[in-house]
Amino acid sequence: MFERAMLELLGKGILETLYMTVVSTFMAYVFGLPLGVLLCITDENGIYPIPVVNKLLGLIINFLRSVPFLILLVFILPLTRAIVGTTIGSTATIVPLVVGASPFVARMVESSLKEVDSGVIEAAQSMGSSTFQIIYKVLLPEAKPSLILGAAITITTILGYSAMAGFVGGGGLGTIAVNYGYYRYQRDIMAVTVILLVLIVQAFQEIGMRIAKMADKRVK
Amino acid sequence: MISLRNLCKSFETADGTLEVLKNINLDIKKGEIFGIIGLSGAGKSTLVRCINLLEKPTSGEVIFDGMNMMELSPKELLKVRQAMGMVFQSFNLLQQRTALRNVLYPLEIAGVPKDKARKKAIELLEMVGLGDKLNAYPSQLSGGQKQRVAIARALATEPKVLLCDEITSALDPNTTRSILELLQSINRKLGVTILMITHEMEVIEQICHRVAVINDGMVVEMGEVREVFLRPRSETARQLILPKGGEIRRMTGKKCLRIIFDGNSAFEPIISNMTLECRAVVNILYANTKSIEGKAYGEMLLQLPDDELSIKRILAYLDEKRIYYREEEINV
């Protein structure tokens, strides 16, 4: 059963999955990181409190996060078609992945930044730092280890979502699992894809944790 | 240097308005070390934060170096804050930066060129005795060392005042002493005005010139440290300075005092007055005095209480009365 063609298919699946996951994670941070910073600083106890903006943003993010991913995927098909030109394949899957993961990233970033000791922020304020300086010289660098850990969690979550996209022809290992395991009852192939997915998740998580630990100067 | 005029600060809480500072008036002179002491919850920390406007006063004026702080634009305020260093109880160092880069932080904010900033930061760390710890992270430093880094950081922009909020409260007595000595030398060498917030009398006593006692958001007493020490007028000051009144204390002190009456002091019940004024008990171990023409001659050996603060008060009292004494150890 694992003749050359199947191995090539699995190899291609792995690459597609990695491509979707990495690009989507990157894009999700492009949108999610500023949103997370905004959530953190506009909080009523934040360094630039604007409660109205904070509440509104929180509401939108909660709404997006409560939509199940598979439904979001179908729901934004028109948007996907408008951006990518097609709704199938791994590039098309990046759009719903980014939309689905950005709010998640925003919350992850927010919680990492809120871990930064308020005393350190106060010290930075006492030295005449502007809000912007506090963000990029205090909040982000001080939260770096926690942000990296968050990124590891995000990337594995996105990997899971990307496999789900297999049901609508999203490409990658997910599609292989659905096509062979679900439609053709080839359970062995499904098992292989699942094992591959587990290994990739493990690898990302392990690497993320190591980098976070290396970056953290607090415990030595 | 700093004047507070009718300063009030209140917070809105779920249970209504909480008045933390009530009509505070203070003048801190250029170059002095001014102490503010009070029990916890008296409003000390809020008071110091009202000076650099980390807390916005509800009403009143904060004048710093001739400027009305409340009238500054947000941008000007950031600039003025660079002329005020602040040191905290919990050090508040950037955990992901080395000692050197912590001291560099305020210089980056002030836009000082890199090589000049680096030179200045190294100079400051050497001054606080951490020339060999430039590349250590805060987690690798002891409490005292962290506070030294924090002091160096606060001094980086050559501020005119140093606001110190309970900076020795997290340190042991020996480290406290060395940190206070450092501040004193900074005050002398650089002429920086220092505002010390504390609940520890020892801190005030060791380095402050003047002190304000605050209680329940109000200044209840203010004056020269010596004066307030010797004759505390307010209940709070008495609580902070004097040991619990009326309590019979066991004499366990190892120190004693040989008092020499050389006829210079007028005849008055020195010892009784001393124990009353200082509210400290002493044990007369030996006495041989004569009264000649209303003047006292001779000597007396007193066992002192086992409490540094009481001893200091007793010595201050004797100094004031111009009585000659010598400190001795009891050899038991």
Topology record:
The complex is a heterodimer of chains A (220) and B (332).
Chain A: H1 4-41, H2 51-66, H3 69-75, H4 77-84, H5 90-114, H6 118-126, H7 131-142, H8 144-164, H9 172-183, H10 187-215
Helix pairs in contact in A: 1-2, 1-5, 1-8, 1-9, 2-5, 4-5, 5-8, 6-7, 8-10, 9-10
Chain B: E1 2-13, E2 16-28, E3 33-37, H1 44-51, E4 59-64, E5 67-68, H2 74-81, E6 84-87, H3 99-109, H4 114-127, H5 143-155, E7 161-165, H6 173-190, E8 193-198, H7 201-207, E9 210-215, E10 218-224, H8 225-230, H9 235-241, E11 255-266, H10 270-278, E12 283-292, E13 295-303, H11 308-320, E14 324-329
Parallel strand pairs in B: 3-8, 3-9, 6-7, 7-8
Antiparallel strand pairs in B: 1-2, 1-4, 4-5, 9-10, 11-13, 11-14, 12-13
Outline of chain B, from the CA principal axes? globular
- Number of helical segments of chain B? 11
Largest interface summary: A-B, 25 and 33 residues
Number of domains of chain B: 2
Q: Determine the CATH topology of chain A.
A: MetI-like fold
Top-tier CATH class of chain A: Mainly Alpha
Structural class of chain A: mainly alpha
Number of domains of chain A: 1
* Poorly predicted ranges of chain A: none
Distance between the termini of chain A: 51 Å
Q: Kindly provide the name of the CATH class of the largest domain in chain B.
A: Alpha Beta
Features:
heterodimer, A: 220 residues, mainly alpha, elongated, B: 332 residues, alpha/beta, Rossmann fold, Alpha-Beta Plaits, 2 domains, six-stranded mixed β-sheet, 34% helix
Compact summary:
Chain A is an all-alpha fold. Chain A has ten helices and no strands.
Describe the protein in words:
- The complex is a heterodimer of chains A (220) and B (332).
- Chain A has one domain: MetI-like fold.
- The termini of chain A are far apart.
- In chain A, helix 1 (4-41) runs parallel beside helix 5 (90-114).
- Chain A is mostly helical.
- In chain A, 80% of the residues lie in helices and 0% in strands.
- Chain B has 332 residues and is α/β, with parallel strands linked by helices.
- In chain B, 34% of the residues lie in helices and 31% in strands.
- Chain B has eleven helices and 14 strands.
- Chain B has helices at 44-51, 74-81, 99-109, 114-127, 143-155, 173-190, 201-207, 225-230, 235-241, 270-278, 308-320, and strands at 2-13, 16-28, 33-37, 59-64, 67-68, 84-87, 161-165, 193-198, 210-215, 218-224, 255-266, 283-292, 295-303, 324-329.
- Chain B has a six-stranded mixed beta sheet, sandwiched between helices.
- In chain B, helix 6 links the parallel strand 7 (161-165) and strand 8 (193-198).
- In chain B, helix 5 packs parallel to helix 6 (173-190) and helix 10 (270-278) crosses helix 11 (308-320).
- Chain B is globular.
- The chains are: A mainly alpha (220), B alpha/beta (332).
- At the A-B interface, helix 6 and helix 7 of A face helix 2, strand 6, helix 3 and helix 5 of B.
